Amino acid sequence: MARHSEEDAGMAKAPPAARQRKKKPKENKTRTVHANILHDCAKGEENPNRHYANNKIKTTKYTVLSFLPKNLFEQFHRFANVYFVFIALLNFVPVVNAFQPELALAPVVFILSVTAIKDLWEDYRRHRSDKEINHMDCLVYSRAERRYVEKYWKEVRVGDFIRLRCNELLPADVLLLSSSDPDRLCHIETATLDGETNLKQRQVVRSFYDLDCEFDPLKYNSIIECEKPNNDLNRFRGYIIHRSGRRDALYKENLLLRGCTIRNTEEAVGIVIYAGHETKAMLNNNGPRYKRSKLERQMNVDVFWCVIILLVMCLFAAVGHGLWMFQYGDNRPVFDVLSPEGTNLSPIMSAIYLFLTMIIVFQVLIPISLFVSIEIVKICQVYFIHQDMDLYDEETDSHLQCRALNITEDLGQMQYIFSDKTGTLTENKMVFRRCTVAGVEYSHDANARRLAMYQEMDSEEEECMSHGGTLPRRDSVTSHQSARVVLRSQSTKSHRRTGSRAEAKRASILSKHTAFSSPMEKDITPDPKLLDKVNDCSSQMDFMRFHSQPMSQLPSDLSDIIDFFIALTICNTVVVSSPNQPRHKVTLTCSGQKHQFGQTSVRSKRDHLWTGLHNDVLPQLHSRLPGCSSLLSSPSAESTLTKLHEEQPSGGLEQVFSPIPPSYDGKASWNLEEGELRYEAESPDEAALVYAARAYKCSLVGRLPDQVIVELPHLGKLSFELLHTLGFDSTRKRMSVVVRHPLTDQITVYTKGADSVIMDLIKPPDTARKFHLCLFLSFSKKIVCRTQHYLNLYAADGLRTLCIAKKILSKEEYACWLQRHLAAETAIQGREELLFESALRLETNLHLLGATGIEDRLQDGVPETIASLRKAGLQIWVLTGDKQETAVNIAYACKLLDPEEELLTLNEACALLLEESLHYIQSTPFLVHRLGLVIDGRTLAYALDKSLEDKFLAVARSCRSVLCCRSTPLQKSMVVKLVRNKLKVMTLAIGDGANDVSMIQVADVGVGISGQEGMQAVMASDFALPRFRYLQKLLLVHGHWCYSRLANMILYFFYKNAMFVALIFWYQFYCGFSGSAMIDQWYLIFFNLMFSAFPQLITGTLDKDVSAETLQQLPQLYVNGQNSEEYKPYMFWMNMIDAFYQSLVCFFIPYFAYADSDVDLFTWGTPITTLALFTILLHLGTETKTWTWMNWMSIAFSIALFFTVALCYNASCPACYSPSNPYWTMQRLLQEPLFYLLCFITPIAALLPRFFYRACQGTLFPSPVQLGRQLDKLPADIRRNILSLSRVKVGSPLCPKLPFLSLAKLWSWLDAHFLLVAGSGNIEVCF
Fold first, then answer.
1. Where are the beta strands (DSSP E) in 682-761?
2. What's the angle, vertex CA 986, arms to CA 980 and CA 992, rounded to 5?
3. Per-residue 3-state assignment (H helix, E strand, C coil) for 489-525
4. Is 426 annotated as a binding residue?
5. Is 130 annotated as a binding residue?
6. Residue (of 882, 869, 845) closest to 995 by Cα position
7. Is 881 annotated as a binding residue?
């Protein structure tokens, strides 16, 4: 230890430049971490960890000194703010100023101040949160005190040793070196990172697994090489180099991430690898996403047109002023303004200066308050969406989350929906249904009846809770093949959510502790025939144990059965929990003390040296692992290789078949009286298979890093030595475990995975004798064919399928494979590719055992939601990784596919198939939108090629439904991107798992389902929903409202500003285009900022053009947003024309009323301002669909505010705008009857054309939304009758005559219009 410290000190004294040159090539790719206690005496510049970030976090943007400049810099990124600041500064130039410079700054200062205060408050909240986190306590090892001392989180550094205790939060990313758990495991809860509440195991680094005493940091003398900090939560690569030169690979299972919580582990010790902002949690903390909505992009175009109109008006005024000055020649008028030098300006210079002056005067044409108002309205809309109790899920205690605050209106303009299947349309709660073993199918009819009983209970409860009605269920369908009819009908019923709510409530406490453990999932009823065979197999094995007979005499079919259930039991990552203490592993009581299974035997075996047959392997592995001084890269690998060459213990078969491991005496007993074991699984598939095996008395009762304990009927508890585990990943789509079989002492590989992958790896072994080879091959081929047949049946019934297989390895084969695998494990570059190739070498030539069918039930309301979204004109594509038959059946069950549709299946990767499909569609136009497209992953990858994507889109657009099977996450995102970019449509992607993240991020709107697969999709989404059915109200109601409100508010803003600016423009014709205004500058500045601001905010937040009930009953109204009916390009120009007309009325009626009078300028201009305010507010009233007390109050407040300010200003500020005098102007006007007459006549005359147009259009050519609004005005019973009639075909016997002419007109229009919409929007609607 001392010598090692001296070596380190010598390294520390080396020249820094040389040290940097030495590390520079490696630092580009990896990070080297040393223990800080070895460098406590070194200076700060000599500590090798000095370049790494400390653990103090700072999420604030500003400091006291940087707030003002940095905030202004960020606000000036918005072009509008730069424009208004430029206008305000331009007003300080004397020759072009139009207002008092200080007063002209008021609006922009107000807007900037409001935004700055908001940013300051948010940053202060972040500062308080940072301070609280940075001052949390943790235990850090101190070399000076030789113990762990308390320190703040912010004082932790990379290379520190940290002691972690149960229920503590992790302060940094820590490499696990020691654990109080006897298995050297540490359980963590990662809910703060990915939302998954099930516990995850993390394992001590292999080198420190065999410590028999407490970890001593002073004895640590290793160096860690790992990857640079990154945000991938599911990856960690590196290795630890020991003093001897040996390298051990590091995995994500060795890393504890910041923010996780220690569970069920008393103490753990680790070394800090990443700290502060370099931790994976902080690198993933990106905050809310920012997107630009379609409406905002369209608004920016109109803002550009406003700039053009502004420039045209200014240019017109400048030319007019130049001509007006030119007519005077040298005889300048006495009121002419001289240049700063005291000379007369030329007409051209006067025109140029006036051009700049008019930009200041007309600046209101660009709505400065529009952007702030939109942000306020969107925040209010999000708040009200959150408060909608219809979007709250009581079962999961979760509600809608809005993670992107600026695209709420996009929800009302969606055209394409791309959905995942598993966990999104289905519950992702797996129930074991049936299986096939050795080519024999076991239907589990009793288990199906049990599920049907739960289904009936749930149906009765739904009927009682629905006030006399239930959601319509899909009946049997008509088809040309009767078998398909029965199959689909049964599938539809089986995919309804089974399991009563009462049962769910009874199991709620259990579910909080153990995931995937509801009675529906775990109480499996075994198949009698298969159960008899399992018992028969176990009894024969018991007989063979008693007579010391070899296992090879067991019939092959029975051997496959027992291997099948062993594979179900051990080929997983399930953690066994005790019944009385959830998530605490089961222990064995022995002589009054608790010991973990196999602990003694494992450690005793590790004391042996590797001697025997294959000593020549040592130099080979040395050559493959440069820099390693030992063959064994880890104790685990060492013990594994040692076990390969140890002789079987002398106990014989009696010891092998012992009910408990040989290392324990007969006093051991199992403490299971308090209840059955619980299984903590990371996926519902694993839990379903383990519970299925337990139903056949093949129970998983304990798990260690090196052993799995299984209880078999008649044989008791057996310990399988776990030699290696190849975890499941989306590329391989399978999982394998390598164990030493306690019954045969053979090294056995058990593999489970997707049938599309496993079936390709099946190959009959060639070790049989030639005499039996043909017969054996024929029998094996028959089993494979039968299994494939049953797999197709399972998939047709909508079940998720998995294949189970095994492989026997010799010790030499496994040793050779292990050497190569260890080399792949210790590689940093290209490790994934090397590990994939290594796994492929192991998982070939498998022997097929059987297959399973697991039901993933549909969520409540999915068929009804999809049907409703279809009526709304939305195209729905389902992108799933499931096999084709399963996906098709689920599509029929959820009404994505209709039995009357013709299915177009693309399963061949060739261009000719696409061309033929396109030709077939074009030759049969009557089939367009009556086709369903099903395409598999291989064909999809081919169709997404640049040369074929247009043909693929042409085929897909002609189909009513599109179903992509076996698609990868990358393919999902490519499909969404292709449709969005090529078709220029609004897309929404919805999913629940990590494999849906790329698709969610590519779409215009991403929706995450907070389901069984954690929160990865939620964290990447714009909106999060508890259930798929809530998507209906989110789009059809809230999306429609948000779009309608914002679209009308934006148009109203443009109208209001243009109308007010035009008043000044008309006055220029009477003042020589001098830039003068008849309106007091205080009114000019604060008219849009204060007097007319509040009513439009209330209307933009609360207005409802159609009620929520009608929007859901008539989904066709959603087409209004898809076609942008509320904000067409021509509407902007119509509003501009209307604004100029209304300004003409408001200008010239007072002009002629006060003609030839002796009133001053402001006595004439103030009524114009008042009339403009009344007209603008009355205009807003005509456009408001829903009146509440807040609407009335806001309008009354605006009028009261205007008159209060006017009266106070005119009474107290006689010389504020010299030489003009506004003193007592409003007071005199309120005494004149003419003023009141103008206030009555002028707004009516100004709004009469708009009102006339609205009346004619609503009477003669009503829009769907207007008819929906008329429906809302009817009594509730009549409205329900009309809406119920919308489901009956007109002219049928069930369609009665409508009693009222107005309703008849309404109904006939609905009939004609919606049939038209249905034809154009690919919707089948019957009225």
1. 699-703, 707-712, 716-726, 734-740, 747-753
2. 85
3. HHHHHHCCCCCCHHHHHHCHHHHHHCCCCCHHHHCCC
4. no
5. no
6. 882
7. yes
What is the structure's pLDDT at 524?
A: 80
Kindly write down the DSSP assignment for every residue of 550-574, as one continuous string.
Answer: -GGGS-HHHHHHHHHHHHHHHSS-P
Q: In a 3-state reduction of DSSP, which class is residue 461? A: helix
- Strand 931-935 to 961-964 pairing: parallel
Give the CA distances from residue 105 to residues 99, 111, 734, 1058, 1208, in Å, rounded to whole numbers and listed in that order: 10, 10, 67, 21, 22
Q: Is 729 exposed, middle or buried (0-12, 13-18, 19+ CB in 10 A)?
A: middle
Residue of higher predicted confidence among 665 and 287:
287
Which tens digits make up the pLDDT trace of 688-736?
A: 899 899 989 899 988 877 889 999 888 888 899 999 888 887 678 889 9
With beta carbons less than 8 A apart as the criterion, state whether 439 and 787 touch. yes
Is residue 856 within 8 A of residue 426, CB to CB? The reply is yes
Which has the closest alpha carbon to 635: 1152, 246, 85, 981?
246
Buried b (16+ CB within 10 A) or exposed e, 645-665: eeeeeeeebeebbbebbbbbe
Cα–Cα distance between 125 and 121 in angstroms, integer?
6
Task: Look at residue 278 and give its three-state secondary structure.
Answer: helix
DSSP single-letter state for residue 1088? I
Which of 485-499, 526-540, 677-691 is predicted with the least confidence, judged by mean pLDDT? 485-499
Instruction: Compute the distance between CA of residue 691 and CA of residue 494 in angstroms, rounded to an integer.
Output: 20
Residue 1262 Cα to chain centre, angstroms: 39
Q: Is 882 annotated as a binding residue?
A: yes
Tell me the per-residue pLDDT of 1046-1074, one tens digit each, with 9 for 90 and over: 999 999 999 999 999 999 999 999 888 88
How far is residue 1299's CA from residue 1283's CA, in Å, rounded to a whole number?
15
The answer to whether the annotation marks 996 as part of a ligand binding site is: yes
Q: How far apart are CA 338 and CA 318, in angstroms?
A: 17
Instruction: Enumerate helices (H) and strands (E) in the chain, giving the number of each.
Output: 48, 38
711 is in an annotated binding site: no
What is the C-alpha to C-alpha distance for residues 1172 and 1169, in angstroms, rounded to an integer? Answer: 5
Q: Is the pLDDT score of 621 beyond 90?
A: no
pLDDT of 720: 92
Helices (H), 755-810: 755-761, 770-796
Q: Which two tokens stand for residue 147?
A: 């113990």
Instruction: Give, to the nearest 10 degrees, the angle between helix 969-983 and helix 949-957.
Output: 80
> According to the annotation, is 728 in a ligand binding site?
yes
Confidence of residue 18 (pLDDT cuts 50, 70, 90): very low
Catalytic positions: 420
CA-nearest of 711, 709, 669, 681 to 694 is 711
The position carrying tokens 């190849």 is 726
Q: Is 167 annotated as a binding residue?
A: no
Q: What was the pLDDT predicted at 43?
A: 57
CB-based contact 822:637 (threshold 8 Å): yes
Nearest CA to 703 among 256, 183, 262? Answer: 183
> Alpha-carbon distance 560 to 663, whole Å?
29
Q: Are 166 and 248 in contact (CB under 8 A)?
A: no
| DSSP secondary structure string for all residues of 1026-1051 | SSTTHHHHIIIIIIHHHHHHHHHHHH
CA distance 719 to 570: 11
Q: H/E element holding 185?
A: strand 185-189
Residues 6+ apart with CB under 8 A from 1009: 423, 424, 990, 991, 992, 1017, 1018, 1024, 1025, 1026, 1027, 1028
Distance CA 759, CA 803 (A): 8
Ramachandran category for residue 709: left, alpha or beta (phi over 0 → left; psi -120 to 50 → alpha): beta
The three-class DSSP label of residue 805 is strand
Q: What is the DSSP string of 974-1007?
A: HHHHHHHHHHT--EEEEESSGGGHHHHHHSSEEE
Say what the pLDDT of residue 1101 is: 92
Tell me whether residue 676 is annotated as binding. no
Report the distance separating Cα 1132 and Cα 1052, nearest Å: 9
